[in-house]
Write a structure and sequence with these properties.
With 221 residues, the chain is α/β, with parallel strands linked by helices. Helix content is 40%, strand content 14%. Strands 3-2-1-4-5-6 form a six-stranded parallel beta sheet, with helices on both faces. The structure holds flavin mononucleotide. Flavin mononucleotide is lined by residues 14-17, 41, 43-44, 47, 50, 123-126, 158-159. Residues 14-17, 41, 43-44, 47, 50, 123-126, 158-159 line the site of flavin mononucleotide.
Length: 221
């Protein structure tokens, strides 16, 4: 297993349902990357708490990082459970949290070189703004930087059914160079618990990131 990845990745979390997808991916990336910058929208913060925790962490960055990495979270395997699959590797990822209004942060600039960005879950609001080039928060600006610099941008929409405008925005973003990976779990890997269904999406994202991950195994005939 290789964990060499010199340039940081960015993980953007926007305000759609399915925050479990983000937390599950984050916990895998801690074992797979050297450097990760996390950007969380204000609505994502509210929805995480609404769906999962009912806490009030305010804007305490250390508290949020501890919550996302270590807390028991319905639908997501714990850090310990995930870590057991990466035996022999140390968790060495440097994790930096940026709030969405902190535009004077490194990820807002194209000169801050990254491997790319994942937005999971990606709300239709965020996708619509990005498709139109509206970049008035850090998550949108960092996504736009990936498009303009030809870096990897993996967008994970979570909505159903999809309106015409949503479909058109997704097509526009695909044409602009983004990868569209809808949060559409499969069942061919015979999931036993919700955690397995969630982790299927983490594995698909890690595949696009070209990481040698230990999320749920690929289908074998
Ligand atoms: C409980 C709740 C669940 C939501 N789920 C979704 C969703 O699954 N997909 C979506 O596109 N928008 C969803 N929304 C709407 C977005 O949160 C809203 O459009 C918001 O402006 C997105 O802002 P952001 O993209 O900056 O995070 C939800 C809103 C709430 C309150």
């Amino acid at each position: 297993l290789s964990t060499v990845n010199q340039k940081p990745w960015i993980l953007g979390i926007s305000g759609a349902s399915g925050q479990q997808y983000a937390v599950s991916l984050l916990r895998h990336l801690l074992f797979l990357l050297d450097d990760l910058v996390l950007v969380i929208s204000e609505d994502a913060k509210k929805i995480i708490m609404d769906e999962c925790a009912h806490k009030d962490l305010g804007s305490d960055k250390d508290g949020w990082i501890h919550f996302l990495v270590n807390d028991s979270y319905p639908g997501v395997y714990s850090l310990t459970q995930i870590g057991e699959r990466y035996r022999g590797q140390t968790k060495k990822c440097r994790l930096t949290l940026v709030w969405n209004h902190e535009m004077f942060s490194s990820v807002a600039s194209g000169s801050f070189r990254t491997s790319g960005m994942v937005v999971v879950p990606a709300s239709l609001a965020t996708l619509g703004k990005l498709a139109q080039g509206i970049t008035d928060n850090v998550l949108l600006r960092a996504s736009e930087v990936c498009l303009k610099e030809n870096r990897s941008l993996i967008l994970v929409p979570r909505e159903t059914p999809l309106s015409l405008s949503a479909l058109e925005n997704l097509l526009q973003l695909k044409k602009a160079g983004a990868q569209i990976l809808p949060a559409m779990p499969a069942f061919y890997h015979r999931p036993q618990v919700v955690e397995d269904i969630v982790e299927f999406i983490s594995g698909k994202i890690c595949n696009l990131m070209d990481l040698n991950h230990r999320a749920l195994a690929a289908w074998e005939p």
